[in-house]
Structure formats: C-alpha cells, structure tokens
Design a protein that fits this description.
Length: about 160
C-alpha cells in the first residue's frame, strides 16, 4: 500500500461514513484521474435515489465521466471501501478503469477476488490492475458497526 493509496482510501472512507449517516450501506468511492487529480467521489445512494445502480462506484464513475466529458475513464484509478459487485466490476471494465484499489473483501458477492475475478480472469476485453486490502480493517469495521446497529433496531 502506498501513502497515496491510503490518502485516497481515507477519502473513500469519509464517503462511506456519510452513507451510513444517511442510512445507506457504508460504501464510498473515489475516482482519481490519470495525472493524479481527484475527479469524483460519492457513496452508496441506492435508497435515496431508489436506484439499484446507486452503488458508490457507479455514481463516482458517472461523475468522473461527466467531469472528463467521456464515458471512458482510461488511465483512472477507482478507490472503493468494499470489493465491488458484478455490476460495478462490469462497469469498470466497460469504462476502461486502469486500476482498482479496494478495502474490505466481500466473500459473498465480491466480483474481483472473492467469488468472481471480473476484469482479472482474461475473459473480457480489458484487464484491471487490482490492489486489495487497503485500509481494510477500517472499512470492514464500518460495515460491521452499521449492520450490528441495524440488527439491533438502531440501538447499539
């Protein structure tokens, strides 16, 4: 893990905390441009937007695309606090994200390393560079606390 990876993942964790504050599953994402500048950041908004595609990664990539004026995010790095699902991994391949950096693994629905290897298995027309486990303890802790509170009916 580089210092820069930790800095950008910390921004993604800030987004994840904002999602939790809104009652959304605490996942945050940040897109960094090819030259290193921050292009976009967002968090889960599935409930708020009534949108099954309202995952943090999808929203951050949409914002980055609008910023660049292009649906291709060639050379960009996406930082996300949780290993992406199949939908988000597919969108990353389509957008030509160069590098994915994620925090916690998702053993049930993770599509990068845990259940599937979308964008890494050589079956698609684009390969993702992947670094996992960046600030994973903080990301996993946020998720555990969120679901514990939800199971307790909002009582900790």
């Amino acid at each position: 893990m580089t210092e820069l990876d930790a800095q950008y993942m910390a921004l993604a964790l800030d987004e994840a905390r904002a999602a939790a504050d809104r009652g959304e599953v605490p996942v945050g994402a940040v897109v960094v441009g090819p030259t290193g500048g921050l292009l976009a950041r967002d968090s889960n908004r599935v409930i708020e937007l009534a949108d099954p595609g309202g995952h943090a990664e999808m929203l951050a990539m949409r914002r980055a695309g609008r910023t660049l004026g292009n649906y291709r995010l060639t050379g960009c790095t996406l930082y996300v606090t949780l290993e992406p699902c199949v939908m988000c991994a597919g969108a990353m391949v389509h957008a030509r994200i160069k590098r994915l950096v994620y925090g916690a693994t998702d053993p049930k629905t993770g599509a990068i390393a845990s259940v599937y290897q979308v964008g890494r298995d050589g079956l698609l027309n684009h390969r993702l560079e992947v670094s996992g486990g960046v600030l994973a303890d903080q990301a996993a802790s946020l998720l555990r606390e969120f679901f514990r509170a939800r199971r307790n009916g909002g009582r900790d």
